[in-house]
Design goal:
Helix content: under 10%
Shape: globular
Oligomer: single chain
CATH architecture: Sandwich
Strand order of the largest sheet: 1-11-8-13-6-5-4
Amino acid sequence: MRALLVDVRGTLARAASTRDAHHQRGKVYLARMPTSTSPGSPTVIDTNAMPWEERPDEKIGRPILRKLLIDDPETGMGVRLTRYPAGVMNPWHTHHCAHGMFVLEGTLVTNAGSYGPGTFVWFPEGELMQHGATAEGDVTVVFVTNKRFDIQYR
């Protein structure tokens, strides 16, 4: 496997704008890319206010959780928070897009190894892979795609 591994130290900055935002319990979060932004106007998303969305998958047998942060309708590029519950592995699969995972909490288990918080793993487009959480604990990652996300199980 040719996954790119980068050990990143530091904190993730939260970007944002409340344009096209949703409100929940007085908090603001964004689910889709804004249709227009002014130069220098960031997109700000309060991920703490967002509920986790369950994404059932019959190949996995249990849902994966996600919070959709950015979904660019023009390029398909996406950014989401993804949580694999303890013991959940996404079995062998490929994508027509490349994607990266920045580990926030827990241990990301892949066919190339296991990686803890602060590690970024990049999976090239078309690469055969599997990834998920350890049996002992959940893993939460920032999941980034370079174009529209799809999945083909092997």
